[in-house]
Amino acid sequence: MARGGDSGGGSDCPGERAGGAGDGGLNPGAPLQNWRYIVQWGRVLGHDSLTQFFMVKAKGRIQRKRSLWPPLVAGLGVGALVGVAAVLVLNPERWGSLWAGQSVDSKSEDCTAGALTELDMLTCWHLPMTQTMTQQRWDAVTFAANLGDSLIPFVRQAPWPEIAAAAKTARVPVLMYHDILPEKQVFFDVTPQEFADHLQLIQERGLTPVSLDALVTHLRTGLPLPPKPILLTFDDGYAGHYEYVYPLLKKYNYPAAFSIYTQGVGQTAGRPKVTWAQLREMAQDPLVTITSHSVTHPLDLRPLSDSDLERELSESKQILERELGKPVHYFTYPVGHYDDRVKAATQKAGYVAAFTMRNGEEFYAGQSGDLLTIERFGQSRLASLVDTVWGGAAPAAPLAGVDFSAPIALQRTTIDGVDLVLVSGGRPVTYHADSRYQVEEFLQKEPRATAVVDGGFFSLESLTSNVMIGPVYAQNTRQFIPGGNGDNPKLKGRPLVVITPKTVQFLPFDPLQHNTLAGVQAQVPGVTDLFVASAWLVKDGQPRDTASFGTLYGFDAERHRAFWGLNQSGQPMIGISTNRVDSVRLGRVLAQAGFREAVMLDSGASAALAYQGKRYTYYEPRPTPHAVLLLPPGTP
Fold first, then answer.
1. DSSP H stretches of helix in 205-358
2. Mind spelling out the 3-state secondary structure of 140-168?
3. Burial category of 187 from C-beta neighbours within 10 Å (exposed 0-12, middle 13-18, buried 19 and up)
4. Which residues of 585-619 are buried (b: 16+ CB within 10 A; e: fewer)?
């Protein structure tokens, strides 16, 4: 399908709609410190992904071994050999660029350019290996040490050019600029001061500009990007990109991508363009990615003959690579126009990904059709986007436990039409109040907390009743209150939430064992909080089906819902749906959002969440006597 959009080359194009480095790795002067990397290397080699290759034949079919010990032992052995070889064999003078603190004469390129610093190597996996190895400052052991569980998404990445399912749920805008000049000539021009204000807004609102390589890796694998990621792009190679944009990018240390049509380079007539000398200087900076924008910038590639189309795609790539001495992996369709034939020619020309644009509705990168049709927003949309940006859910980690050390962060996203407010990170606690309160009042009662969601189900016998359905134990009271004999049998099998200082467990509630503190502690020592939730929405990373809810009243009704659990990295996550949804659909959405475990809290009129004192509901919720709160990491 053809798509037109928000830009082009020169004044004849449609305009916009009105309106860091890793930890350095091995140290040849301190071999003992390097065992941390060797152990981590073994951990990576012993990954669940490796067990795919440890298969045995039984009764005529292939079966996977249950135990991880063989790959773990093999990984540690190979890792030790690699580590010793790296320490003893490599010559620090010859391989000086591999070591932290070593100065090197030549400037090496970091293709992630301030984005995914712990994934520097992986961000370049889509490049030819020889190019990656000559451009990156890495060694095998540091590579393994920094990867950890992040290797798995690369093993399971979507077939090119498809976009990974996890990336489709993220909200990563690609922002598109054209000319930057002191006096505007058309409405989509931007002055240097306006662009400086944009970068200031990006900084003040906590957005993280990422490189194009980082975005493509995210789209292929679903790996999350840094907090609130955004990609800055600039079309047509105007002189103002070198004179105004490039200095500001260096000031803020922000990466960006520049789309160049080769026939325009060095032009002085009309709107002046960058020169080859300026372009070479920019291209050598790790902050800058150069993409091809064709040879002549035709207004539409679709009507061109096969030979002309091939020239626009292939010759522009060859000229840029020859003049800049760097590979060019990305293309930008002039004026955003393409069809299946143009896409096929783009692939044949050797491009990994391509940008489009449109004049009408605009979309986040993850909502693009595929890697050859990455969507963009016009730069005038920046102010409306800053509060919607989200880098995606953390990837599933084999053998993952619980992580209470992550910073607390809020994100808003929409998945399959369900609007979610999610807060992840920190350490979870519960609060059982003496009466009923709005969620933001719990933050006043527990000032250490950053975020709160309404908690377990409670009796409606009076407006101030704090009687819970099922047993409850909270840190603020340190008093275990058993559930009523009339309620407990009905709660059998529902999730019992059990929190300790180091872990969270979700257990099927057993009225005989779990209605005393001693009974719970016999199964989970060190309990600090517990309560019975309504139902599992996600269990072991899988959404629950209709049958799992049994006779639970109202599970199939569309209501505002509250929930909490653990994401795939083991971090606590609380949330609400700000529009109405049934439980089964919500479970599917939360699994896509990255929950490993999720249970439903009191919902309907009670569903409410507050973050840093602000309540995120469009209605006045019913006060509740119980809440789940998130304390910042390290809070005593």
1. 212-221, 239-240, 246-252, 276-283, 306-310, 316-324, 340-348
2. HHHHHHHHHHHHHHHHCCCCCCCCCHHHH
3. exposed
4. bbbbbbbbbbbbbbbbbbbeebbbbbbeeebbbee
| Strand duo 529-532 + 495-499: pairing | antiparallel
The phi, psi pair for 211, rounded to 5°, reads -80, 160
Cβ proximity of 296 and 259 under 8 Å: no
Q: Is 216 in contact with 352 (CB distance < 8 Å)?
A: yes
- Does residue 561 contact residue 573 with C-beta atoms inside 8 Å? no
Q: Mean of the pLDDT values across residues 458-474?
A: 87
Average pLDDT over residues 437-443: 96
Determine the Cα–Cα distance for residues 615 and 442; give it in Å rounded to an integer. Answer: 11
The answer to whether residues 623 and 436 touch, using CB atoms and an 8 Å cutoff, is: yes
Q: Is the model's pLDDT at 122 over the cut of 70?
A: no
pTM (2 d.p.): 0.57
% of the chain residues with pLDDT over 70: 74
Closest by CA position to 222, among listed 375, 395, 415, 413: 395
Tell me whether residue 384 is exposed, middle or buried, using C-beta atoms within 10 angstroms of its C-beta: 0 to 12, 13 to 18, 19 or more: exposed
Report CA Rg, the chain.
27
- Per residue, the 3-state secondary structure of 532-568, as one string, reads ECCCEEEECCEECCHHHHCCCCCCCCCECCEEEEEEC
Amino acid present at 75: G
Q: How much is the pLDDT for 17?
A: 33
Q: How do strand 624-631 and strand 451-454 relate by DSSP bridges?
A: antiparallel
Are 538 and 584 in contact, with CB atoms under 8 Å apart?
A: no
- What sign results for the dihedral spanned by CA atoms 603, 606, 612, 616? positive
The whole-chain average pLDDT of the chain stands at 80
Quick one: average pLDDT of 507-531?
Answer: 94
In angstroms, the CA 595 to CA 562 distance is 14
Residue with tokens 């920019």, as numbered in its chain: 282
Residue 594: both structure tokens together: 């990255």
Helix (H) or strand (E) holding 260: strand 256-260
